[in-house]
Structures are given as structure tokens and as C-alpha cells.
Design brief:
The relative contact order is 0.08. The chain has a 4-stranded antiparallel sheet, with helices on both faces. The chain has a two-stranded antiparallel ribbon with strand order 1-2. About 65% of the residues lie in helices and about 10% in strands. By secondary structure, it is an alpha+beta fold. It has 14 helices and 6 strands.
Length: about 400
């Protein structure tokens, strides 16, 4: 493949990755997963650039051209493994949180060995000629160990997908399963590109296919962020209305539950916004733990209000769900040491195909029962608006 041909093809993946990189930086994010994703994108750019320009000095016999050809191929082969190593780390940190590879130094060291071995083979290639070599005509030639980088690449892709699929089956919520499945779908295109490129010398598919997979995953993740509440990780108000309307159009028998954190305004005014946000996250965690791997839809409705949509046929089932929630919050108060007690007031409304009202009337019905519940308990209303803790 000539340099001109490589350049005409290679600019496209670079532009895609640059668009993803700058789009991802429109909002400041400081998590470990975001930092690894940044390094992944920058490494992909370095890989693509070195791949393009490694064709430029081919055939030129000047000493500088020969040195450039060695250097560019060393960079290319090193970054080819580094990119997929970072993808594996991203999967682990994004899905496993405190159990990620970064939190397990021994496992991190062991998983770094294959990438380090490829980098060592690449750097020492001018001496060993095992991975590749430059012939007298100044052309790149595969060495006897040329398959090693491809095998290592496949190992990291399979490991990343294994992490994602493992988390998919262990997930407690639909949101976690969805995220795991999205990351697992990265694998097929890069695997196909790597296999074809290893079999047909001169074919350049691994990078374009990998970039295409990154783009697909990024688009899906961005679409999910539109429907997810940033603070709690639950579905947001917009997604709540979409899902509830969908269930009502289907004529499903459901129960709408609205839960409001008790004394939330006092928590904010006494302990500050940081503790208030912590209370919201704790509340979301209780709901997730109470309804693991079920068809119950969980959302942050606004401020300190949470909404649940659960399959429900009658008032008895609805009250059973309410009791489960109250018991879960009672148990959560016995775990950990916090300067406040976490509890909720609850209102609910039933819907089936005989219901003649719209979604607003259903919400209003649940809200009226919520206010009655608070009144019976002698608790005033929380006026927090639709933002975060205030």
C-alpha cells in the first residue's frame, strides 16, 4: 500500500477520534473511567498517525528514511497493544468500580505483562528482528513472531468483553445490564479486522474497525446519558415520562409510586449540599437494592422525589411494594454511621386499561396520597425544586 493510499484512508479514523475527544470534553468529567477513555482516544490517534507515516519512508534508501521506518513501526506496534489494553481497563473501571483492575495491583501487573512484552519486542526489533525488520530495499518485513501483537490484541479484546459480560449477568439493575451489554458489543468488528489483517499482509482494517466500534459505543453511551440522572445514576424525569406514557399506551397494569425523602430540607440546611447529595445517592442505592433484577422502573423525579413504576394488579400488591420500600429504608438506617436518618414518605396510584385519565392525573393522584402520608406523620413538604440538593 502506498503512502498516498494510506493517507487517503487513514485520515478518516483520526478525524472520527478527534470529534469524539472534543465532544467528550464539552462537559468536565474527572472520574478514572473518563481519564482512561481520554488516554484511549489519544493513543488511538498516535496509533493511526504512526500507521499512516510508516508507509512514507518505504523504498527510500537514505539513512534517515531507514531510521524513520524503524521508529514509526516501533511506535505503531507498541500503541497497537496499548490501545486495547486501555480499552480493557476502561471496561473494568466503568463497570466494576471499587472492584476494578486498578484496585487490584497484582492483577493489574499480570495483565500488563502481554502489552509490555510486545513493546519490548518492538523496541528491540532492530537488534533481534523477531517482530519485524527492515530489508535492504527499505521495506517492512514481518518477523517470525509477527503474530504475537495480534494474539495480545485479541487477548485484551476478549478480556474486556469477558468483564462486560460477567457484569451483565451480575447486574442488579436494567441500567447496569444495558451498560455492560453496550461495552461487550465493541468486540466483533476489531476481532474481524485483526484476523483479516494478520492473514493478509498489507491489509489495513484493525484500526478503522476499532475506531468504528469506539464510535458506536460512544454514541450509545451519550444517548444513555440523556436519559440518566447524573447524581444518582437512576433514570431521569424525561425518561420517566417516556416510559410511563409507553406503559399507559400498552394498557399495562402498573403502580406508580412517588417517594419523598423526609426532612430533606433540614438535612441540607444543617449539613450542607454535599451531605444532601449523599442522602440522594443513598436513597437511590436503597431503591436499587430493593428491586434488583426486576421489571421495576426507577427514576429520580426531581429534587428529593423518586418515582417507581412496577407491574401491579391491585391495591394489595401496591401496599406490599410500599412495605418493601419502608422495610428497606429501616434496614439501611442500621448500616453505616450518618448524622441523619434516611426515610421516605410514599404515595401511589394504580393504572390499568380501564383508567380514563392521563399521566398528569395519575401523578396527581399519587402525589395527593403522598401529601396525606406526610400529613399523618406530621412532616412538612420539602421544597427543593427540580435541581439537586438545595
Amino acid at each position: 500500500m502506498s503512502f498516498v493510499t494510506q493517507l487517503s484512508i487513514g485520515w478518516f479514523p483520526i478525524i472520527i477520534v478527534l470529534i469524539i475527544y472534543f465532544d467528550n470534553h464539552r462537559v468536565q468529567r474527572f472520574s478514572s473511567a473518563d481519564q482512561i477513555f481520554d488516554w484511549l482516544l489519544l493513543s488511538t490517534i498516535a496509533l493511526s498517525v504512526s500507521s499512516i507515516f510508516s508507509w512514507f519512508p518505504e523504498g527510500y534508501t537514505s539513512p534517515n528514511s531507514r531510521s524513520a521506518l524503524w521508529l514509526l513501526n516501533i511506535i505503531y506496534l507498541s500503541f497497537s497493544c496499548l490501545v486495547l489494553y486501555l480499552w480493557m481497563l476502561y471496561n473494568s473501571v466503568q463497570l466494576q468500580a471499587n472492584q476494578s483492575i486498578l484496585k487490584r495491583p497484582l492483577l493489574l501487573s499480570l495483565l500488563s505483562v502481554p502489552a509490555a512484552a510486545v513493546i519490548l519486542l518492538a523496541v528491540t526489533a532492530p537488534l533481534t528482528r523477531l517482530l519485524f525488520f527492515i530489508d535492504r530495499g527499505n521495506h517492512y518485513q514481518r518477523g517470525i513472531l509477527y503474530l504475537v501483537p495480534y494474539i495480545v490484541d485479541l487477548f485484551y479484546i476478549i478480556a474486556a468483553s469477558g468483564i462486560a459480560l460477567n457484569q451483565f449477568f451480575k447486574a442488579n439493575t436494567e441500567e447496569q445490564r444495558r451498560n455492560s451489554l453496550v461495552l461487550a458489543t465493541f468486540a466483533p468488528l476489531p476481532i474481524l479486522g485483526i484476523i483479516l489483517q494478520s492473514l493478509i499482509e498489507g491489509l489495513w482494517l484493525a484500526i478503522p474497525f476499532s475506531v468504528l466500534s469506539i464510535l458506536i459505543v460512544y454514541i450509545v453511551i451519550q444517548n444513555q446519558r440523556i436519559t440518566i440522572d447524573a447524581l444518582t445514576g437512576l433514570n431521569n424525569r424525561r425518561e420517566f415520562f417516556r416510559y410511563t406514557n409507553e406503559q399507559m399506551k400498552m394498557g399495562a397494569s402498573i403502580c406508580l409510586i412517588i417517594a419523598d425523602i423526609n426532612h430533606f430540607r433540614e438535612v441540607n440546611s444543617t449539613y450542607g449540599r454535599t451531605v444532601g447529595d449523599e442522602a440522594l445517592r443513598r436513597c437511590a442505592d436503597v431503591f436499587r437494592e430493593t428491586f434488583p433484577q426486576t421489571k421495576t422502573f426507577l427514576a429520580r423525579y426531581g429534587g428529593d422525589e423518586f418515582a417507581l413504576i412496577a407491574p401491579c394488579d391491585d391495591d394489595t400488591q401496591a401496599k406490599h411494594i410500599v412495605d418493601r420500600i419502608n422495610n428497606a429504608f429501616e434496614q439501611s438506617s442500621t448500616r453505616g454511621s450518618y448524622p441523619y436518618e434516611l426515610s421516605v414518605s410514599i404515595g401511589y396510584a394504580l393504572y390499568d386499561k380501564r383508567y380514563s385519565g392521563d399521566i398528569d392525573s395519575l401523578i396527581d393522584k399519587a402525589d395527593r396520597q403522598l401529601r396525606r402520608s406526610r400529613s399523618i406523620q406530621g412532616i412538612g413538604s420539602n421544597t427543593t425544586g427540580q435541581g439537586g440538593a438545595k
